[in-house]
Structures are given as structure tokens and as C-alpha cells.
Predict the structure.
Amino acid sequence: MLRIVALGGLGEIGLNALVLETEDEALLVDCGILFPRDAPGVDLVLPDFAYLREIRDKLRGVVLTHGHEDHIGALPYLLRELRLPVWGSAFTLALLSQRLEELEVEAPSLGEIGPGARIRPGRDFLVEALHLTHSIPDALGLSIETPEGRLVHTGDFKLDAAPLGRTSDLSRLAELGRDGVLALLSDSTNADQPGRSRPEREVGEAFVPIFEEARGRIVVSTFASHIHRIQQVLDLSRRFGRKVVLLGRSMERNVAAALRTGHLQAPPELFLDVEFVGSRRDLTILAGGVQGEPRSALARLALGEEGRPLRLEEGDTAILSATPIPGNEVAVAAVLDALILQGVRVHHGEPVHASGHACRDELLEMLETVQPLHFVPVHGEVRHLVAHRELAVAAGVEKRRAHFLLDGQVLGFAKREAVRLGTVPVGRRYLDRLGGGAVGEEGMRERRLLAGGGGVSAVVVVDGAGRAVRDPELRAQGVSGFHDGLQREIRREVVRALDELPWGRRDRAVLEEEIRLAVRRACRRALGRKPIVLPLVVET
């Protein structure tokens, strides 16, 4: 039997990590991060690797579809624990190698694969790489032969008819479909968007009049991995006699990698180091931080914090070439406002951006090309997965063979039929931006409580019998309405709770739990919310 289980990516955009498993072997497809929302003090969210550790003796390696962080960003952390061979395209491996070096992780065996290449990670899996267009070079779909039949995994894709690079290999996908595909696992990000995604060339065309009209500096911010868009910016800068300044670590790193691998074409003299900018206005500044990250290059420019040589002036131009990721809308709006307040002319939204993900007409074309027996929507939030499943049924996939899965749910295949096989434990690991260590789910719950309702510490001095010998000492942080009357009520509630405890249940752990509950009860009655409580028992 073949088992499919996602450790992330089914129910959220990001955290992509999919396990294919037989009785004897397993293969991991992608291992990405999630950029945090509602996670105070956290930079990155990783999948929980517990299940991978459980099947470590079966794992034959990792195959990467492309180099976006939500597909490769967690892999260095996994490779610290498990030594696994990794396969991916040239640009994907170039980005991964940089991350491994930065995090001081010993590089594993890295195998480069391109369209048409075949690898056999073990006896049970034969993987063929397929070219598909996306918003990063060298994106791959995968055809995976298993003992139960062929799977086609699209990775992230769009069917751009005239891309800047190669077109998607629909002819090979059609051949696979005619030969028979057990299941199609397909990108669902834009499954609720009608029509087709805009061609990438149209974005470059929208940039032309902006460059023609600009008289001062032009700031272009886009994803640092969007090499095709960056190429268009470089070409326009050469055409209009502008020097290019790279700003932001990711932008510098990715452009350097793309120049090294040949995915970007530009003469060295096009670039100007920030130290030599002086008063020049004929500049294109390629800046990272298009999602409004607080300390990013774009945010610093918008707030005038980048330093005198790169300060923007009234009449300068800014192009934000991306759509805000859900949850980042407020941060992006703040950057837009800060730029406008400086007198900068701002362009953002559809004319200067195109999605890298297929919309409904393209998803339908993929379904009609591959003609799968079964269908599993992947890479999306719940509404995207449901919309994609409904599209597959409308396209002719039997309803019982169009499967809706969330992280941790297991789908098994045997003799061309599918069966639900329960769940495996899944979760998230949060990386603290200061200490760099992992924060568990309980730690994140406490951080959210502190961020949302504050915290109260309660120190209670007790005698040998576990009774309070003086009023509890209380201190609150971030709790509005923590007035004297509430503090008196909390003290009464704590003393009463301890007095009512039976004599046989007065050890320290029980006392601290009773204090915690008493404080929360009193706050709930008075404030309508329950802060996090840190109790401390001191014995006389």
C-alpha cells in the first residue's frame, strides 16, 4: 500500500512537506517554512519533524520542486538531525546551498536534476522531473512511479503561454495522462480565482512607462526569488541608463546566486555599490521587504532610516511588485503610507504584479491534460483546497476519488482504490528570533496570552500546612484595569481557594495550580478575560 501524508501545506500556504510511504521506504517532497502570523517574537515556523524521525530508517531522501522558502526553508533544520540525500534543480540547490552555509549545516549529497531527468531514490520510487512555469526559475513538477501507480505532483505552477523562460511541458504531462495517472496532486493557491493568471511579460510592459516618466530614483521591491521579474528590471535599467543598487540580504544573495548559475544576465558594470551612490539620481534600487517586514530594506527606505546616500526625495518613484500575503496587509499599508508621506510616487497592485500560481482555467487545463483517476488538492488554505476539489469533480473526476485532506491525515492507495488511514501527529516548531531556539506549542500559547491579555505574577507565602500567612503579592504587566479593588478581590479569592483545599492535597504543585485558577477566575469576572498567571509559592 502507498500512503500519502502532508506534514504541512494542506490547510495553510507555506510549511510544505509531503511524505510518500510504502511498507519499506519513504520519500519526502519539499520541506518548507511558514512565515508567522500571530506568533510574538518568532521569525520562522517549521513543520514538526517527529513523524520523520519515527520513519527515519525508511526515508530515502528529499526531492524539491523549487527554491521558495516555503518549500526549502525548513530543510537545513531537518538535515541537522537526519542525513538525507537531496535532489533539486540547479537554482533550487544554489539557494539551498547558501542557506546551509549560513546556518552552518554540513551539506548532504546534493543531486541536480532538470526536466526529463530520472532518479531512483529507492526500489519503490522512480522520479521524473517535469518543467513547469512558476515565479522562480527551475521550478519542477514530479512524476513519481510507485508500486501502486504513478503520481503527478505539480509543485507550484502557472501555465504562462509566453513566459520569460521555458513553457510548461504540457506535452509530457499529456503523455503521462495517456499512460495512466493514479493521482494528481495539484497547486491550489488560486483555485478560487477565475480565468487565467496574468503573463509575466505584461508586468515588464507595465514597468516601461513608469521608467520612461521617472525623473528621480526608482525603488523596485519584489520577492528576491522572482528572478524573471528582476531580469526585466535590470533590462529596463540598462535601457534607460540607470545603475542598479541591491538592498537587503536576500536580494543580494539571490541575485548573486542567479548571476552565478546563469539565470540572470547582466554586465557587472550595471551594478553600483551603495557606498558609491553619492548624490546620483539615475538609480534603480532593488530592495527586499515587499511584504512590509519591519526591519527590511524597503521599510527602512520608507521611514528614511537607510542612511543619507539612499534617502528618497519628493518625486522619486516606488514600485511594489507583489500582492500582500494574508496577514501582511497592515504592514504593507504602513510602508505605502510612509512612502507617500515622503512625496514618493507609488505603484502597486495588479498592473505591476502577476501571480505565479495558476487560476481556475489553468487548473482545469492541468486536470484535462493529466486525466487522473484520483485527485488530491495541495498547497492551500481550506477554501482553496475545497474549491479545487469541486473543480476536479466538475472536470470529471469521480466525487469519491476527489479527496480533501488536511495536515496529518493519511490517504492510502491499493489496487487503484483509496482509503482513509487515520492520522499521524503533526505540529509546528517556532524559532525564536533572539535565542534561535525552538518554542513549543505551549510556549506560543503563553506568548499569545501575554500579547492579548497580559500577565499577572502572584507570590504567596505559606506555612508548613500550606495556608497563606500574609496577603499575596501581585504584579501585572499589560493588564488594563488592574486597579486596587480588583487586587483586593484577587487576594481574597486566592486565600479562600487555599483554605478550602483538603489537608491531603497541599503540595507545592497543587498550591500553585489553585493560585493560578483563582487569579484567572477573579480577572475573568472583573475584566472579561483571563491573563496568563505565573504563581510562586514560598514556604516559611
